[in-house]
Amino acid sequence: MASQEEILEGLANIVNEIAGTDVEDVQLDKSFTEDLDIDSLSMVEVVVAAEEQFDVKIPDDDVKGLRTVGDAVDYILKAQG
Amino acid sequence: MSPTKRTETPRTVVVTGLGATTPVGGDVASTWSALLAGKSGIRTLTEDWAQEIPVQFAGRVAVEPLEVMPKVEARKLDRSGQFAMIAAREAWRDAGFADKNLPAEDGTGVTVDPLRLGVAIASGIGGVTTLLDAWDIFKEKGPRRVGPLTVPMLMPNSPSANVGIELGARAGVHTPVSACASGAEGVAYGLEMIRSGRADVVLCGGTEAAIHPLPMAAFANMMAMSKRNDEPQRASRPYDKARDGFVMGEGAGCLVLESAEHAAARGARVYAEVAGAGMTSDGHHIAQPEPTGRDIARAMALAIEDAGATPEQIVHVNAHGTSTPAGDITELKAIRAVLGEPAADKVCVTSTKSMTGHLLGGTGAVESVATVLAVYHRMAPPTINVDDPDDEVCVDIVRNDARPLPEGQIVALNDSFGFGGHNVVVAFRSVG
User: Fold this and answer.
1) Cβ-defined contact of A41 to B148 (cutoff 8 Å)
2) What region, left, alpha or beta, does residue B181 occupy, with left being phi > 0 and alpha being psi -120 to 50 degrees?
3) Contact (CB, 8 A) for B398 and B383
4) What is the tens place of the pLDDT at every residue in B154-213?
5) How far apart are the C-alpha atoms of A42 and B359, rounded to whole Å?
6) What beta strand segments (E) does B319-408 contain?
7) Which of A41, A52, A63 to mutate to test binding with chain B, by most B CBs within 10 Å of its CB?
8) Which of B70, B71, B147 is facing A45, going by the closest CB pair?
9) How far apart are CA B15 and CA B48, in angstroms?
10) Residues of CATH 3.40.47.10 domain(s) within chain B?
């Protein structure tokens, strides 16, 4: 089970790999599309990479609810449990 | 609907920018100097899979895309799209236009009206490595792991579309597909867009990245490829008696075409005029060249006529010359038949594929770049490895050493022919 900090760090690395965004810029209050240069297709890549890294399932219908990095961290925390 | 300007008489079209990434060089300057020096870009493949297929060598690009392109950008493009973007940026910059077609913050930089800017970058087989890699992932990890960018990366129009998006081109973005004639068809399409008044500037060309075990095995099983595994740099040997098939290459070439008045208005450097194009089809066989060469001869004749040129003005042909037993000689005979005497005795013919290998959908574009430079510098690159010319060679082949071209107004042809019987010939005329 990954902690909130570990999930944030993991997501930051994934976003950096996919969009080139600096790791330090990936913070809980940041919006994927508005702040981090992640479009809808890139978001699918982020989700699939997060599923693989944290061993969770994030159904397509739930992806729409993940507006900010914090939304994604909370979702993954709950999904792990 | 975007505005179009239809004109009564065809407009003169010129080449103002060149870009390339090829097995002999990562840009135009290094490619051109390698071609003039007769250097081969063919190497033994070091990948493990190469041991399993009958052909174990190819012409990889001299400079890997990641050396000149950020990883974040590269991962969104098929390898063929990476090549096209690299060549397109070089051509665009070479033409004197501002990066991304946007003025700098201080307002400087030459830009093109997006509504008057088109793109025509061809591909022979599209994003084949993206497709096959995605299928490998599907089989290993299941459908969920197939990347959402797979389709936008593998579609054959992807290189053209990505370049069009980068430049904000809105006059039309096109992707001619005609196997190994594709790149030349891209150039011919660009010419037509400007002549017809649809655009003032077109970034055109062709790209291919098919060095992967599946296409390599498939081409080898067509008995189309050289199997000279022990001497890869000697394998592409057009017109030589011992030729045994083509050698796979990869890369892209791009040209900025521009209406002569648009180029003159901004004082652009002009390499050559795109004087004309000829396109025909064999109506014969999906893979075999039509044996009499009647339709490749007709394509050449149409290009010369379209250029308003005389046979005597054709001093150089960058031939298709793939190093296959049948096709090479058929083309030479067609050149002789079309030009007639005395022009056929004077023309100097070369196949730069002897050095680059065969870039499939990229070949007609890279060879158009080479033909433009031959006209501009008045120097024809050599054909290497013609140690013992075929007895049926019936025109003057530029063997081993580059050859100066005459002064005065000269015209050169670039021939490209593709599986399916596509014949495309583009004519370039010297300026000044």
Assistant:
1) yes
2) alpha
3) yes
4) 999 999 999 999 999 999 999 999 999 999 999 999 999 999 999 999 999 999 999 999
5) 31
6) 348-350, 379-380, 396-397, 403-404
7) A41
8) B147
9) 42
10) 13-265, 277-429
Residues of chain A with Cβ-Cβ distance to B152 below 8 Å are 41
Q: Tell me how close the Cα of B149 comes to any Cα of chain A, in angstroms.
A: 7
CA distance A29 to chain B (A): 23
Instruction: Give the Cα separation of B273 and B431 in Å (integer).
Output: 7
The CATH number that applies at residue A47 is: 1.10.1200.10
Task: Report d(CA B396, CA B393) in Å as an integer.
Answer: 8
CA distance B88 to B203: 7
Instruction: State whether B72 and A18 contact (CB < 8 Å).
Output: yes
Q: Which CATH number fits domain B277-429: 3.50.30.80, 1.10.10.10, 2.102.10.10, 3.40.47.10?
A: 3.40.47.10
Please give the tally of structural domains in chain A.
Answer: 1
Q: Name the one residue in this structure whose structure tokens are 């149409």.
A: B302
Question: In this predicted complex, what is the ipTM?
Answer: 0.89
Residues B228-252 pLDDT 10s: 999 999 999 999 999 999 999 999 9
- The answer to whether B26 and B37 have CB atoms below 8 angstroms apart is no
